[in-house]
Amino acid sequence: MPTPQLTTCQGAEIVPYLEALADLRIRVFRDYPYLYDGDPAYEADYLKRYADNPRSLFVLALDGERLIGAATAQPLADELEEFRGPFEKAGYRVEDVFYYGESVLLPGYRGAGLGHAFMDARERHAAEAGFAWVAFCAVERPDDHPRRPADYRPLHDFWQGRGYRRIPELATSFSWKDLDDTEETAKPMVFWLRETPA
């Protein structure tokens, strides 16, 4: 298998890839723990916020012309209240935080270092832009969730190995429709945080 190529873009430069990125998000987030019942209208609205923001960052992994992975980020100050609010309440300056929207990668390409490459690119961008902190949040499902696969391994070791810490007091909730559900429900999300690497 050829090694995927990484490229970065900002703001409206993502437009040629928007449809492929929406499809990729829907496909990857169907899996546990997100169990997202994909909604193209929601995807269009979500990605438009990033595409309209010249300060956003997209890290794209391409196998030839095919988008097989992506990571997004933008200043926390430009994010929704659900993500800004916990930091404001905890006394952080949101202007100092670079926030990661997501990392999505097709299963066949995992385990080859692309997750680290996504982190490296976002951390490097945050450092060059002068942000003091980098952060993301992750959904937290109960251990006895009926859709939890027997071989499921959370990414906590990966994140901790890169210097991120789970901060329980930085928590929020976000709503989406799970697979097989008829309506959206709020999901608990907890933030992970580290100082921006030098």
Describe this structure in words.
The protein starts with a strand and ends with a strand. The model has no long low-confidence stretch (mean pLDDT 95). 27% of the residues lie in helices and 31% in strands. α1 crosses α2. It is an alpha+beta fold and 198 residues long. It has a 7-stranded mixed β-sheet with strand order 1-2-3-4-5-7-6, sandwiched between helices. It has 5 helices and 7 strands, in the order βααββαβαβαββ.
Short structural description:
The protein has 198 residues and is α+β, with helices and mostly antiparallel strands.
Major sheet, described briefly? 7 strands, mixed
Radius of gyration: 16 Å
Q: How would you state the average pLDDT, rounded?
A: 95
- Overall number of strands: 7
Q: List the total number of helices.
A: 5
The percentage helix is 25-40%
The helix-strand sequence is EHHEEHEHEHEE
First-last Cα distance:
34 Å
Shape: globular
Strand order of the largest sheet: 1-2-3-4-5-7-6
Strand content: 25-35%
Structural class: alpha+beta
